[in-house]
Amino acid sequence: MQNKKNAEGKSKVNRKPERGFHDDKTIHKIIDEAQYCHVSFIQEDQPFIIPTIHARLDDSLVLHGAKASRLIKQVSTGNEIAIAITILDGLVLARSVFHHSMNYRSVVIFGKGVEITDDKKKMKALKAITDHILQGRWDDARKPNEKELKATSVISVKIDEASAKIRTGPPKDDEDDYSLPVWAGVLPIVKLIGEPEADPVLKKGISIPDYIGRIIK
Amino acid sequence: MQNKKNAEGKSKVNRKPERGFHDDKTIHKIIDEAQYCHVSFIQEDQPFIIPTIHARLDDSLVLHGAKASRLIKQVSTGNEIAIAITILDGLVLARSVFHHSMNYRSVVIFGKGVEITDDKKKMKALKAITDHILQGRWDDARKPNEKELKATSVISVKIDEASAKIRTGPPKDDEDDYSLPVWAGVLPIVKLIGEPEADPVLKKGISIPDYIGRIIK
């Protein structure tokens, strides 16, 4: 799981190469933590970009959607697509405007979508996506029935040509600016799960399951 | 500011049209709240997607970057680009796997980039971007000097063909599923600014400015 990715061509990190990573471990970790991705594809010479939920199954990214959706129709054609996954970690406030930045972890994947048509594999991918939304949810919720499974398309994209880009740490200012009387540092962005909002029509007597209680602490 | 956007063609919301909005007020609010965007463009028949910081100046989106960056080189060509801005608000846990969803606010803009070359307009755009990172920061930090201004390109994209898509509220399950003994509801995603991390080499005696203190309460 630590194979060297193709670090040339499209996924080469050209700008600030010191922020670039091409190993599976780094790439997979970012994919697994992010709650959604953006998929970019070309339709009639026009770039499109659509946010969607994803999950990782080994070394593939899986996406799903309604059979009739633009995303599924375009991504299942096997044309080239690009997928970005971005986690914002902090606002980097330098002494100079020029050196302002963000701390972030991002992955870009270049690949082609392949539709998963085998029902068993489809269910496995849908389990991965459901548990990616919330670990433990698949076992608790009602599984897809035949009709729902038919209405849903699942697309797999090999995480083959991919790169991660990461910025961490304090701002970097020009030597001369360190003496300026300007506060500099990082404002961390913290993402939390807030107090669960039960469905107003939730049946009485159903308490919050353990796998939710655990993550809201 | 409430003009009807072009609700046909590329930016028409086809799936779940009840979630679609085309008015400036809704679109601008999402753009203003989001901390970054994803830009998609085509280079040699290949879709690319890059996360970057943005700001809104009236009815245009402004982006910036190093002159030599792929983003700037491609986006300043005047070719078609697509920009997505997505805010995740909550995980929507339905009784059935099929109806799981996310609460979100998203905008997609289709347009073309135009480079801003006038120095005064460039500075205005950089102020908008800096204050979009953190309101009040431009006035506090050292402004770009001539060399920095030259090394930075600023691109403007008219928010002309754009649409917003919003999902709010509890899950919607199939009638038969409401009797299932499964907890259903929304887990809100809360984004906070954490405790400021001062640059380890910050000059002594510089306290956290008001415009930061205010947002961390």
Structure, described:
The first copy, chain A, has helices at 24-33, 70-75, 119-133, 137-140, 146-151, 210-216, and strands spanning 20-21, 37-43, 46-52, 54-57, 60-66, 80-93, 101-116, 152-158, 161-167, 185-193, 197-198. The mean pLDDT of chain A is 93. In chain A, strands 1, 2, 3, 4, 5, 6, 7, 8, 9 and 10 form a 10-stranded antiparallel beta sheet that branches. Chain A has a single domain, classed as Roll (Pnp Oxidase, Chain A). The first copy, chain A, is globular, with a radius of gyration of 21 Å. Chain A is of the alpha+beta class and 217 residues long. Chains A and B meet through strand 2, strand 3, strand 6, strand 7 and helix 3 of A and strand 2, strand 3, strand 6, strand 7 and helix 3 of B.
Number of domains of chain A: 1
**Class by alpha and beta content of chain A:** alpha+beta
**What is the radius of gyration of chain A computed over CA atoms, rounded to a whole number of angstroms?**
21 Å
* Assembly of the depicted chains: homodimer
Terminal Cα separation of chain A, in Å? 32 Å
Helix content of chain A: 10-25%
Mean pLDDT of chain A: 93
Instruction: Give the CATH architecture of chain A.
Output: Roll
Q: Which strand-content bin applies to the residues of chain A?
A: 35-45%
User: What is the CATH superfamily of chain A?
Assistant: Electron Transport, Fmn-binding Protein, Chain A
CATH topology of chain A: Pnp Oxidase, Chain A
Number of helices of chain A: 6
SSE order of chain A: EHEEEEHEEHHHEEEEH
- Describe the largest sheet of chain A: 10 strands, antiparallel
Flag low-confidence runs of chain A.
none
What is the number of E strands of chain A?
11
Q: What is the global morphology of chain A?
A: globular
CATH class division of chain A: Mainly Beta
Q: Largest contact between protein chains?
A: A-B, 90 and 90 residues
